[in-house]
Amino acid sequence: QSVLTQPPSVSGAPGQRVTISCTGSSSNIGAGYSVHWYQQLPGTAPKLLIYDYRNRPSGVPVRFSGSKSGTSASLAITGLQAEDEADYYCQSYDSRLSGSFGGGTKLTVL
Amino acid sequence: QVTLKESGPVLVKPTETLTLTCTVSGFALSNGRMGVSWIRQPPGKALEWLANIFSNDEKSYSTSLNSRLTISQDTSKSQVVLTMTNVDPVDTATYYCARNSVTYYYGMDVWGQGTTVTVSS
């Protein structure tokens, strides 16, 4: 069972907006440790999509955004495209810099 | 160009020790702003963080696997090694190494392609 909880799946039509939640606890997100988001396309290694809750690495489209509220974080994708169909994972650390991933969310573009 | 490449056995027998090597290029393991993590993914399942190591040799391990894992680095060879003792078929997975960057608040900004390990007799 993951320390960080994500919905198993979300879906949306092209052009729509979807959000993926990541619920943690007072020992990770609630303690102020950063949350990062990764996109994993089928058959490939994960890619860093959002770091420190809301920052995008160079090259990541502005359609992807992140936020935090209390012990939860969220990833939002606007203007959904077929190429966004992938698995999405949140990730954080605890006080020992021991990492953990959420259980992953499969995004289906209808 | 920053790259990481995992290597190790394709097949391991139950109860044996698995040794995986991550060879990095394009950055130095001695760089105080970098570290390397190991992550695995069983077939069809979620990512699982295993361990990380930083330039000052500080290490962290997964709580659930702590007793079975050892991570180390050889900065002269640009390699990070992960050993896992007493493997079991549930350890069958693709194993990835990834760079942790302080620039990205220890997010993993560059990943290797992964190496697939099967545990079977």
Summarize the helices and strands and which ones pair or pack:
The complex is a heterodimer of chains A (110) and B (121).
Chain A: E1 9-12, E2 18-23, E3 36-40, E4 47-50, E5 64-69, E6 72-77, E7 86-93, E8 99-101, E9 105-109
Parallel strand pairs in A: 1-9
Antiparallel strand pairs in A: 2-6, 3-4, 3-7, 5-6, 7-8, 7-9
Chain B: E1 3-7, E2 11-12, E3 18-25, E4 34-41, E5 48-54, E6 59-61, E7 69-74, E8 79-84, E9 93-101, E10 107-111, E11 115-119
Percent of sequence in beta strands of chain B: over 45%
Shape of chain A: globular
The separation of the N and C termini of chain A measures 29 Å
Gross morphology of chain B: globular
Largest protein-protein interface = A-B, 25 and 24 residues
> What is the arithmetic mean of pLDDT of chain A?
94
Low-confidence parts of chain A, pLDDT < 50 over ≥5 residues?
none
- In DSSP terms (H or I, runs of 4 or more residues), the helix count of chain B works out at 0
Oligomer: heterodimer
Structural account:
The complex is a heterodimer of chains A (110) and B (121). By secondary structure, chain A is mainly β. Chain A is built from no helices and 9 strands. Chain A has strands spanning 9-12, 18-23, 36-40, 47-50, 64-69, 72-77, 86-93, 99-101, 105-109. In chain A, strand 5 and strand 6 form a beta hairpin. The N and C termini of chain A lie far apart (29 Å). Chain B is mainly beta. Helices cover 0% and strands 53% of the residues of chain B. Chain B is built from no helices and 11 strands. In chain B, the strands form 2 sheets. In chain B, strands 2, 4, 5, 6, 9, 10 and 11 form a 7-stranded mixed beta sheet that branches. In chain B, strands 1-3-8-7 form a 4-stranded antiparallel beta sheet, with no helix packed on it. Chain B starts with a strand and ends with a strand. The interface between A and B is medium-sized, with 25 and 24 residues.
